[in-house]
Amino acid sequence: MVNADTNNSNKSNVDFDFDTAIRNAVKRAIIEHYCPPKASDSDMFTRKQTAKKLCISLPTLHDWTLDGLIRAYRIGSRVLYKLEDIESSLTLINPRVKRGGKSC
């Protein structure tokens, strides 16, 4: 009789753990779907980091910002650039079609 009670107790613990795991997984999925993560500090770059990422000088970055080629954000005296703005400022160069000659 004790053995049967032990089996029922173990089964209810497994059922409880399984139910809890499913509930937690569903909660996480709902939160991730309806509350996407916000941009973190790692998505923001200083002027120096942005210039290094684009392989340009700080004066060139300043000129590009004033010309509207790339968007900048000011927080107090700091100027920051969002990763998405850095990437969106890049444009694709269409390669020329080779006409004859040796191909690599």
Describe the structure in your own words.
The chain is mainly alpha-helical. Helix content is 56%, strand content 11%. A three-stranded antiparallel β-sheet has the order 1-3-2. A hairpin with a 2-residue loop joins strand 2 and strand 3. The longest helix has 33 residues, at 2-34. The protein is elongated, with a radius of gyration of 28 Å. It starts with a helix and ends in a 15-residue tail after the last helix.
Features:
mainly alpha; elongated; 3-stranded antiparallel sheet; 104 residues; 56% helix
Number of strands: 3
Biggest sheet record: 3 strands, antiparallel
Q: Which strand order spans the largest sheet, edge to edge or round the barrel?
A: 1-3-2
State mean pLDDT (0 to 100 scale): 80
Number of helices: 4
Rg, Cα atoms, Å: 28 Å
Question: Which outline best applies?
Answer: elongated
User: Structural class, please?
Assistant: mainly alpha
Helix content, binned percent: 55-70%
Give the CA-CA distance, first to last residue: 81 Å
- Multimerization state: single chain
Low-confidence stretches: none
Beta-strand portion reads: 5-15%
Order of helices and strands: HEHHEEH
